[in-house]
Amino acid sequence: MALSSKTAREIFEDVHANTARAKFGFGERLAIVNVDPQKGYTRPDLFPNTAYITDPKQMDYINQISNMAREKGLPVIWTHVAYMNNAADAGVWGTRTDTPDSLQNIKYRSDRHAFDDRLEIDYDVDAVYTKRMPSAFFETPLASFLTWHKIDTVIVTGGSTSGCVRATAVDSLSHGYRTIVPIECVSDKHESYHFANLTDLQIKYADVVNVKEVINWLDNYEV
Question: CA 52, CA 48: separation in Å to the nearest integer?
């Protein structure tokens, strides 16, 4: 195992700057999958023990690319996580802790389950799923939804980078999709987790790009 005195951020910056590394690239039709941008994870003023901010403009960027995709007739998907009042659907994941901040205590229709108020969700055309496990693909209609819409590229946003974003990106690649993670659109509680996982995603599972690349692709996309 190689050792390094560099921080996780520095290692990611080195990997990201390597222009020789091949990209998966964009395909012909993309979908935006916004993973768990719910108040329990986006509002540290309300939920200081579970929420986090990495890029202060994250919600703005998510809105921008989601609106652009929607205007071009491309699918936009939103997920958030919640459980039954007795957490009977949390499975083994809900057995490690049981505090007010524990995952299994995010209840349906609670403030922690609610999407961030800054988000521009069109409930008439966007797909909205409540999930229970890390990946947006696990036991949701996402895979069949993407197949029906002839999607070959998945843009993953949201949080956390080290948790549900990573799980969704790995599953996206495993399902055969070109997978792209815009840096400004994902977040985590600590920069080490954030950048270590961006490095791993970049090397193995996804193209980790500046959001401008996604914006430019959408701007040039012709229906």
Answer: 8
Q: Mind listing the pLDDT tens digit for each residue in 1-27? A: 988 899 999 999 999 999 888 999 999
Confirm if 24 and 181 have CB atoms less than 8 A apart: no
Domain span at residue 208 reads 24-220
125: which 2 tokens? Answer: 């055309």
* 19, part of any domain: no
Domain with residue 162: its CATH number is 3.40.50.850
172 in a domain, yes or no?
yes
- What residue has token string 């080290």? 162
Average pLDDT, integer, range 200-207 = 98
Report yes or no on 2 lying in a domain.
no
Judge whether 208 and 183 are in contact, CB under 8 Å: yes
